[in-house]
Design brief:
Layout lengths: L6 E8 L15 H10 L2 E8 L7 H14 L4 E6 L6 H12 L5 E4 L14 H9 L4 E3 L8 H10 L5 E3 L4 H9 L3 E4 L5 H11 L3 E2 L9 H10 L4 H15 L3
Parallel strand pairs: 1-2, 2-3, 3-4, 4-5, 5-6, 6-7, 7-8
Length: about 240
């Protein structure tokens, strides 16, 4: 990766994982994560709980707080909630912001099995917006289709919505709403080029550790045909502006 450009990573799982993947349990604790960040020159990382189906998000959110308190200059903490839980979900949003003092939330429409633009979740996203919680949302197929998240972003234009796993339809989303960012884990170099051509200030590097590995994810940025100036924006400058300390 050239002269070891520093990295700010917008997509890192941390803590115990539920058994949602039968052949891969991606549990990773802070004692394992910090040496990994040091090894790959990651100055700061956005961390959030691993998927935990059931009632475990509050306790895993507590773990994120413990880790951020140990490493406040290195970690940006996001909480997780299951939006289907109605009032319980809203209470956890309020706890995330007001008591835990976490910075934002991570949502995964496939793991939590919800369609973001469904009217049932209007109140949930209104509270997210009112609390000024940035959202990192998984994108993919089905409920995770970027077009569904775009509807939420347009309804709440002051909400920061980061689309994980940059794909071509995420590039289209960048054009549609100025409050949308994209994150690069698991993407292709061509999509990095398309996204930075569209809005080089709204593209964030992401690793999806521990599901993916830093050498593979940085290689995507390195082989993309973008300038070093743009690489600096993707690797760390856009993140530092968004999550200024």
């Amino acid at each position: 990766m050239g002269a070891r450009m520093k990295i700010c990573d917008a997509h890192v799982h941390l803590g115990e994982s539920g058994p949602w993947q039968p052949y891969h349990k991606p549990t990773i604790y802070i004692e394992e994560l910090m040496p990994l960040l040091d090894k790959f020159n990651v100055a700061r990382a956005l961390v959030f709980p691993n998927p935990n189906v059931g009632d475990k998000y509050p306790e895993t959110n507590d773990y994120i707080v413990e880790c951020v308190q140990k490493h406040p200059k290195r970690l940006v903490g996001f909480g997780r909630v299951d939006p289907r839980r109605g009032r319980e979900a809203i209470q956890e949003l309020e706890r995330i912001k007001q008591k835990l003092k976490l910075t934002g939330i991570k949502l995964h429409p496939m793991v939590e099995c919800f369609r973001p633009d469904h009217p049932y979740f209007n109140k949930f996203f209104k509270v997210v917006n009112d609390l000024k919680l940035p959202v990192l949302i998984h994108t993919g197929e089905g409920f995770s289709a970027p077009g569904l998240a775009v509807k939420v972003a347009k309804k709440h234009p002051s909400m920061i919505l980061i689309m994980a796993h940059l794909r071509e339809s995420c590039v289209s989303a960048l054009r549609e709403s100025s409050n949308i960012y994209v994150e690069t884990s698991g993407t292709l170099p061509e999509f990095v080029e398309m996204a930075t051509d569209t809005d080089e200030d709204h593209v964030l590097f992401g690793s999806d550790v521990p599901y993916y590995r830093y050498p593979a994810q940085t290689a995507i940025i390195e082989v993309a045909e973008i300038s070093n100036k743009v690489k600096r924006k993707v690797y760390f400058e856009n993140f530092e502006r968004l999550f200024a300390t």
